[in-house]
Predict the 3D structure of the following.
Amino acid sequence: MTDLDLLHTPISDLLLKHPYAKDFFTLLGLPSTSCHTTVKVFFDSLDQDHIENLGLVRDELCSRLHDFIVQMEKLKTGKAPTLQSITLCGGRNKDGHPENISLELRPGDVVSVVGPTGSGKSRLLADVECLAQGDTPSGRRVLLDGQPPDESLWLGGEQRLVAQLSQNMNFVMDVSVREFLTLHAESRLVDDIDAAVTQIFSTAVLLAGEPFTLDTPVTALSGGQSRALMIADVACLSASPIVLIDEIENAGVDRRQALDLLVKQEKIVLLATHDPLLALLGQRRLVIRNGGIADIIDTSDSERTLLRKLNSFDRKFSELRDRVRHGQRLDFDLDVFLAECLSPAEQGQLE
Ligand SMILES: Nc1ncnc2c1ncn2[C@@H]1O[C@H](COP(=O)(O)OP(=O)(O)OP(=O)(O)O)[C@@H](O)[C@H]1O
Ligand SMILES: [Mg+2]
């Protein structure tokens, strides 16, 4: 379709063929009652200040719409963006000292990011999320397949490239869990929306300690429940090749299950954490000090062995947490508890 054809198409016809274009018109402030007008009539009716406030130019509206449709069609028909590697090119720490690193990450790599509070772990994840090009406080640069990112990735594809579970999450919309998940599934162009909503919801309920329903308003979810919902959403729906996770341990969800879910696909996972179990899950950990990557530690074989042992202790600890949650007493024999921590099979594995 040429730009001219596009201009003379009634919006309602366009939406029948390209339902996602509604987002474009909604952004411009189209009232839902005006869909019978043509694209041109609608564009002409827009206030100049309104267009400028959105950072747009009147004469370019049509080509922007055209690009948007082409981009969305590509996303719809294409698979998730394939990515061979991301490269993190060092910037500087808070004192301006250079990091002098270049770190290449490939699908399947799980890298933990550790460091004291305030050292810059979230900053590092944010640098990856925005595909920094020396334009953030750290001055880092992120390359995709060895190249600076293509601009089209910022124009709507980035949501697909990076999925982030951030430290602070607030829902701003007052909708039910069902509506929230439906909106997400729609925006990611899922074919069977009901199936996706059911799958994400049941996964989230498994992860969250306390049950909730599809009709619960998202603003009424507890911190743990909303985190569980977002983890399930990213794990089940997102095709992003890069997943960023910021301090999952404070989320009040089953963190091991959550992580298993997230890393089961071949993704590049960056995980900021203070938790030894999660830190050891990565093949490497980046040590952040004073805003800079101060060290890169490869997880050793003995640490992996330790991790298996710690995991069985952690499982027993989860049982204790559940008992506390359910208001039960913790009357038990510590020696028996410790002996139970390792099943005979696990004891065999460790010897
Ligand atoms: N290289 C850097 N140069 C300048 N400022 C930085 C740098 N790295 C981090 N900062 C700033 O330092 C502050 C603390 O960083 P950040 O929030 O990333 O810490 P954190 O390790 O995630 O802490 P927490 O464990 O509490 O979550 C932020 O304001 C961040 O922008
Ligand atoms: Mg942080």
User: Anything to note?
Assistant: The chain has three domains: 3-77, 86-299, 303-350. The two ends are 68 Å apart (CA to CA).
